[in-house]
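Quick one, tokens below. Sequence please?
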């Protein structure tokens, strides 16, 4: 993660924690389900490959989270989503392909429960991204385009606004380390760093 991204994430977490004063009960054994919409916005910039500089577009899709509290204020969360779809562009050649991916994330999270109706939280986890339905277009029309699956770390920060005894509105941001090897007709042409920010909102219900 670059210094700029680190500072941005730190500022975001600080802003979320500002209203906290030692809301929503987050006790051992609680479970929450969140239904929302998130945008995956690649931050890796253009990655240089044997073919030139490749960049990946953003996309928005529905998301689902499940969190189980293993201790008071501490939960294990799983993120799932409807498959994201991205256009792939090559500098000077325009769109050369498209792909779909699923980026499930497993995180451990700490919730700053306080006496207000606003509960910030932070988390750290691991991501596995699988790419599928890779299709070459434009200059690569008819070619076999493959993006390899990826493992990486993920950071999460957000805030829950209580709207009922068991419900809250969540605004959150995630950084995911995603780097994929790109192959054309079976030959590796380079690696593309996607490294997206995932930003969105969800309704979270506690059971």
């Amino acid at each position: 993660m670059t210094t700029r991204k680190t500072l941005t994430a730190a500022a975001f977490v600080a802003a979320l924690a500002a209203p906290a004063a030692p809301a929503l009960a987050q006790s051992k054994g609680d479970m929450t389900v969140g239904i929302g919409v998130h945008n995956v916005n690649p931050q890796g910039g253009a990655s240089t490959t044997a073919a030139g500089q490749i960049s990946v577009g953003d996309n928005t899709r529905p998301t689902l989270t499940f969190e189980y509290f293993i201790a008071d204020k501490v939960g294990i969360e799983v993120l799932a989503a409807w498959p994201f779809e991205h256009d792939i562009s090559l500098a000077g050649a325009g769109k050369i392909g498209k792909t779909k991916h699923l980026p499930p994330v497993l995180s451990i999270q700490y919730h700053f429960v306080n006496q207000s109706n606003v509960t910030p939280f932070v988390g750290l986890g691991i991501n596995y991204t699988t790419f599928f339905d890779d299709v070459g277009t434009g200059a690569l029309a008819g070619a076999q385009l493959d993006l390899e699956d990826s493992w990486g770390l993920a950071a999460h920060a957000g805030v829950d606004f209580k709207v009922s005894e068991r419900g809250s509105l969540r605004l959150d941001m995630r950084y995911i380390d995603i780097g994929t090897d790109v192959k054309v007709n079976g030959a590796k042409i380079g690696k593309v760093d996607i490294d997206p920010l995932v930003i969105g909102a969800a309704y979270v219900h506690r059971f």
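Residues 3-20+29-206 form a domain with the Porin fold (CATH 2.40.160.20). The two ends are 35 Å apart (CA to CA).
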